[in-house]
Write a structure and sequence with these properties.
heterodimer, A: alpha/beta, six-stranded parallel β-sheet, globular, disordered N terminus, B: alpha+beta, 5 helices
Amino acid sequence: MDKDEQALSGTPAQQSGAIEMSGAEMVIRALRDQGVKHIFGYPGGAVLPIYDALFAAEGLEHILVRHEQGAVHAAEGYARSTGKPGVVLVTSGPGATNAVTGLTDALMDSIPLVVLTGQVATHLIGNDAFQECDTVGITRPCTKHNWLVKDIADLARVLHEAFQIATTGRPGPVVVDIPKDIQFRKGPYVAPDSIRHRTYRPKTDPELGQIVKAIDLMSKAERPIFYTGGGIINSGPEASKALRELVKLTGFPVTSTLMGLGAFPASDPQWLGMLGMHGTFEANNAMHDCDLMICLGARFDDRVTGRVDLFAPGAKKIHLDIDASQINKNVRIDLPIIADAGKALREMLHFWKTQRRKVDQAALARWWKTIEGWRAKRSLEYRNSDAVIKPQFAIDRLFALTRGHDVYVTTEVGQHQMWAAQRFGFEEPNRWMTSGGLGTMGYGLPAAVGVQVAHRDSLVIDIAGEASVLMTMQEMSTAVQHELPIKIFILNNQYMGMVRQWQQLLHGGRYSHSYTEALPDFVKLAEAYGCVGLRADKPSELDDKIKEMIEVRQPVLFDVRVDPKENCYPMMPSGAAHNEMILCDAEEEATEVSEEGKVLL
Amino acid sequence: MQQKNRVERHTIAVLVDNEAGVLARVIGLFSGRGYNIESLTVAEVDHAAHTSRVTIVTSGTPEVLEQIQAQLGRLVPVHRVVDWTLEKPGIEREMALVKVAGTGEKRVEALRMAEAFRARPVDTTHTSFVFEITGAPSKIDSFIDLMRPLGLVDVSRTGVAAISRGAEAM
């Protein structure tokens, strides 16, 4: 029976009392039933029916971006800061292809997104129609899952499955591609609770035998370390709470990946700082010398491990991850636990307490003494200046002057991102939004838009570089239109700073195309967008200008002119091990990066 | 170390929902992550339940093979993944159609070899045979090697189908 005939004769769902509506209305209804309050999007021909349904919809706020990449990053910032899925609505063809960078970013960093794309009408698919592209083909490798809905009878189910798959298990982005004729066609709507996926059953409960083995290893460890990651943040605030309790109970040191910052408070004495390529001396050395590594919701990324064959050579490794494919991917694991981080941590706490476990106090005291020795190196220190603003100083002042505010921080990608990760102390989860896995320059400004949409009264700051921020600068217009007072704190060194640093360290100081000769005047640019522009050239003006930035209830572009040649240290060069760090400029000349190291990114 | 890096050939069976694009997901996973596909066999095995069975012969170190299995398990429409070689050695079969052209002594020899391999001529002309042969992939390899000097013209292989011994299902 052809679909139109079926519609005429009445579908089974219709007979059972399901509500009949158009595909476009169904989209709006499904979003509402899924608890969506905000959509980031950009209209176009193939989504006009949905935009038409949105016109009259109440309780759904649409944020009109200036580029689809901005919509996806904004949705990422929204999701990361709230724990709820970010929702994006874009058109076919260029609308979908522009979303690809954001989708890949969200996939790498496990951010739950539901991206709805318009598609040309089903009879035109494959015809090279206007604004047609193979959206499901293009987005297949950069989504957790995707669908092309060719039958109105499938639409409601697919929309609900999309939310389920994006938000459960290891979160990630999904795409639902909806042809224009399906948006017009009428069909039965089914509610979310009637959906049960045929194959998708993420495993979130830990095997208790593994938990007991883990606390066994923990109670016998002499040089233990917690290595935590974004999985703790994704699991929700309860996981952070459980982590804090477990860290207190055991007295073990804790370090974190870039994505995991905020899960454990940076002000705590057991906090060693971030690890990895620009991690602290104490965190990396503790990782190298530990005898038990307890990895919680992290994935042994190459930025974290450095040279894999020299990675924590004497350590037994416990790996807790919700995604079984992460176990043994880069590093051999002695004890895997496949589960949701929060659930596993609560079980660890439960067994630790009920079995009255104790740690090896004497050994732990010796371990802490060793760590204090590394800490005494004060690897994040830098030489300050009265004449020129050091980027580290700018971040320290920003951090100091924003205490007492309800602060969310996003970043772009590069030196400023690493300085922010090293120096801006995060006390709570969901406060730090950055592009970790993909390293997307241009992430921070639109992400700040998304965060501010979710937290209207909070102070949302994008710690930016001048090169990155120009990639998605157009979203300032979005911020102005929607009255989102985001603060873009640009550490302007006129270089692609991290590129310049690598060219200095690895390519003989040949600064090939890493200097931006024709930068815009950011203050005038701010005025052109209809927001506030600020500039600081000298360290002495910084505090007043930062205060002004905080006070203004408008979007701000703050051009902080910093030392153009400052390098980001400490640094574990690629191809090096955790105990082979460069601490400052004086050391870098003595350090030869190996030929293999140069090949690595 | 040497021992760890040895490359093994494994047969992996994947039971998937037969939805649009599912094969592209499986193949895209292999190409995207740099894994090998030596052969691939796909067909719907339960028309009522819309499930298909994908049988993949792949090669890699034990670490890579473990990753392949885990990554396949992560795909949303996948019901089950079994590393056949590792978990339940069973029966592997492949079918091939082999075309041999020639006359005289070579033609007689080809027919004699075919009989020895239990390959059946399914098309015969005065100057050619098409043989149908079923067996383990290694048997088919040997047969094709033997046909080469006897006038091998064309080969079409199905890829491997695999099933476990005994009463249990996948």
